[in-house]
Design goal:
The chain has 179 residues and is an alpha+beta fold. It contains 4 helices and 8 strands; from the N terminus they run E-E-H-H-E-E-E-H-E-H-E-E. Strands 1-2-3-4-5-6-8-7 form an 8-stranded mixed beta sheet, with helices on both faces. It is globular, with a radius of gyration of 15 Å.
């Protein structure tokens, strides 16, 4: 499965992405405003990548690498980020959990909005009738602004935040908002 937009090409994460994913996930600037710390070593990234690939094999959906489309839009070559949807069991039932991590060099240039917009619009990745959630740090203004642009809204106060970290906020894109 591959997705494309006028500026971007998205492809399922693959073993050959390990080094670029590791560089992104160890960069403190890519975690600015986040309550999750950057990864500390390659073994962690290898394990995470294995989990992501297993989701693809089992579910037919998951996380995708984001790269520039043939040098368009003035974007640099190489990995621009990773985005996607992964199944998650919550107290409210099964949902899809949204994830985005964008390289600091291209933050603020619409890459995350364009990439996640493509993911959310693709019925192979987001089937009708499935709620999508995003968990972000309450103080992560950039992530909250992206979620808002994508149509996410704060969950009702009675819902638990998956992961249970203090300071995190649960955002919801209702199933009826599916394209």
């Amino acid at each position: 499965m591959r997705l494309s937009t006028p500026r971007l090409r998205l492809a399922p994460v693959a073993e050959e992405d390990l080094e670029e994913l590791f560089a992104l996930h160890t960069d403190p600037a890519a975690f600015r405003g986040d309550t999750t710390p950057p990864l500390a070593d390659r073994v962690q990234m290898r394990w995470v990548l294995g989990q992501w690939r297993a989701v693809w094999a089992r579910e037919g959906r998951g996380y995708l690498t984001v790269r520039a489309a043939d040098g368009r839009g003035g974007l640099p070559p190489g990995l621009l980020g990773v985005v996607g949807l992964s199944p998650l069991e919550t107290d409210s039932g099964p949902v899809l959990s949204a994830y985005w991590r964008i390289a600091p060099a291209v933050q603020g240039r619409g890459v995350a909005t364009e990439a996640m917009g493509a993911v959310l619009a693709d019925p192979r990745l987001r089937p009708r009738g499935v709620e999508v959630v995003a968990v972000t740090a309450r103080g992560n203004d950039a992530s909250r602004a992206l979620a808002d642009r994508l149509g996410f809204r704060p969950a009702v106060a009675t819902r638990d935040v998956p992961g249970g970290r203090d300071g995190d906020l649960l955002l919801v894109l209702p199933a009826e908002d599916a394209p």
